[in-house]
Amino acid sequence: MSVHSALNTLRPEASEAPESGIVEVFNYGRDREGLIPLWVGEGDLSTPAFISEAAQAGLAAGETFYTHQRGIPELRQALAGYHERLYGRPFDAERFFVTSGGMPAIQIALRMVAGHGDEVVVPTPAWPNFAAAAEVGAAKVVEVPLTYGNAGWTLDLDRYFDAVTPRTKALFLNSPCNPTGWTATREELQAILDFARAKGLWIVSDEVYTRFFYEGERSPSFYDIAEPDDRILYVNTMSKNWAMTGWRVGWLSAPPAFGQVIENLIQYSSSGTPKFLQRGAVAALDQGDAFIDFQRKRAEEAREIVCSGLEKTGRVRLVRPAGAFYAFFAVDGEPDTRKLALKLVDEANVGLAPGDAFGAGGAGFMRLCYLRNPDQLREATRRLADWLAK
Known about the structure:
Low-confidence stretches: none
Shape: globular
Largest sheet: 7 strands, mixed
Structural class: alpha/beta
């Protein structure tokens, strides 16, 4: 049997899984000398030493064996303590489950609530991995584009709710949003929760960027309004707040009653997250508040550098994001953002992500990650401005 024939025997959910539009540009330009890479969602700072040293101590102590499927007790308690500080009320450590990154937390959440023939409603533009994970699991994603106008990006809740059908099992929400920076208000979250309760729907809430919010210490959250047993699965990661993207440590928060189900799904995917890496996560949660504050202030400065620099060109449409750390902008006369991203690699030596990689709602836009050195961002903005001037 030829390889081509063998490919035809694979499940379509696997063989038709889309290539990431972000990775395509990344692979195209990754080896360009002097290129400024602003295409992926991570900062340029290495993990702080106090986190790495805690992991190294665990490794030196021989913590290289199988461990608790749900996460070591110390990390689950640290997660509870972190949430207590952030939301000002007690949290049960039993509702936190450690995963090998934020992506596995999303996959487990989806396996719990949606499968073949089911639908999940997703506002777009949105990080493409969520839709891909749902579709690999044979669920269907129903996109509801955000509206872009003078006030920035907004979600039409009537349109969001009207997308629900008898096949809908869950509403997905990422707030603050990657890539737009749109951030739901407390009132919008309450309306979504009320609707989900009335319809018996699950909510999968991706709150990865909740600390990268420019109007307070954190963004509004379902934690502010929900009851502990509401049908909400919260997914999060150590990656962004603590500069730990390569560590692959995340968590899922859910009512403790679902603990055995989640433990089983962890067992059948990763069999648990390495214990010595979890030691680093404990240190991050217990000692990392000052680092998060530093990151947020750095991001706020970077937002101003990039947005003001692009606005001065007179050729882009953008609104300063309320949260996350991306500038999501449209370039006049450049509707094909995939071609534009490749062209900017070749002609401006700057790497950006094409907006159509984030669903139908992102068509015509580009994403720039600005959680980086201010001097590097000034140079990248200058290069983009020079290219636009041509």
